[in-house]
Amino acid sequence: MKLGIIGAMKIEVEALKNNMESKTVVTRAGMEFCDGILEGLPTVVVQCGVGKVNAAMCVQVLCDCFGVTHLLNTGIAGSLSNELDIGDLVISKDVMYHDFDCVGFGYAYGQVPGMDVITFSGDQTMMDYALAAAEAVNPGHSKVGRIATGDQFVCDKERKNAIIERTQALCTEMEGGAIAHAAYRNGIPFVILRAISDKADDSAEMDYPAFEAIAANRCAAVAQRVAQKLRGI
């Protein structure tokens, strides 16, 4: 078994790398892949960069060059639910695109032509591990649900409402759907973890550097706990 961890924030990736043992760094497609041992489990940690193309490329390199068997993606997301507060954690039940529209050709909204699914379902075991880890790290502040992905930084209420109507997702971000898509095509179990960066109703704010540090620590702690659990399979 070998876990691939794809991080969206440099601070989070660095925290995980610092906790790895026997590590080597290999550069592929402009990305640095840190290959070593995390919590006793063979693991590769990498920052993929922003957006769906970077994310999908990263997954394919992890599969083809490093032989990963499981994938975990962490990062931040904008809330689409009034039940989520800043710093809460969302674990993917499934993931879909909110910006893929081939409805005019007879496909469902979000469906990629040629694909037999509209949403990409996370692995149940990894989802259970991630939820248990999230509850241990930040009790009472984690939810399982749908994550919506698109190459858009979504910050206004009107756009958020449109995404909610089309996807019924809990949060929106820019990489998870592509990672899930590539994992699905490669037959690799995955889970997506997101820390919420803003409230859906824009009623609260947090200084971003402060949020970034909190999110990085929480996500890294969850990822390490998931690695511990996977080691026992």
Percentage of helical residues? 25-40%
What topology, given as strand order, has the largest sheet?
5-9-8-6-10
Q: Name the beta content range.
A: 25-35%
Cα distance, first to last residue? 9 Å
The backbone outline, from C-alpha atoms, is globular
Q: What is the helix tally?
A: 6
Largest sheet: 5 strands, mixed, barrel
Number of strands: 10
What's the SSE pattern?
Answer: EHEEEHEEEHEHEHEH
Radius of gyration: 17 Å
Secondary-structure content class? alpha/beta
Can you give the mean pLDDT?
A: 93
**Poorly predicted ranges (pLDDT <50, ≥5 residues)?**
none
Structural features, described:
- It is built from 6 helices and 10 strands, in the order E-H-E-E-E-H-E-E-E-H-E-H-E-H-E-H.
- With 233 residues, the chain is of the alpha/beta class.
- It has a 5-stranded mixed barrel, surrounded by 4 helices.
- Strand 8 (142-149), helix 4 (157-167) and strand 9 form a beta-alpha-beta unit.
- The protein is globular, with a radius of gyration of 17 Å.
- 47% of the residues are buried.
Descriptive tags:
233 residues, alpha/beta, 5-stranded mixed barrel, 29% strand
Helices and strands, with pairings:
Blueprint: E1 3-7, H1 10-18, E2 21-28, E3 31-38, E4 41-47, H2 52-66, E5 70-79, E6 89-97, E7 120-121, H3 124-137, E8 142-149, H4 157-167, E9 171-173, H5 176-186, E10 190-196, H6 208-231
Parallel strand pairs: 1-4, 1-5, 5-10, 6-8, 8-9
Antiparallel strand pairs: 2-3, 3-4, 5-9, 6-7, 6-10
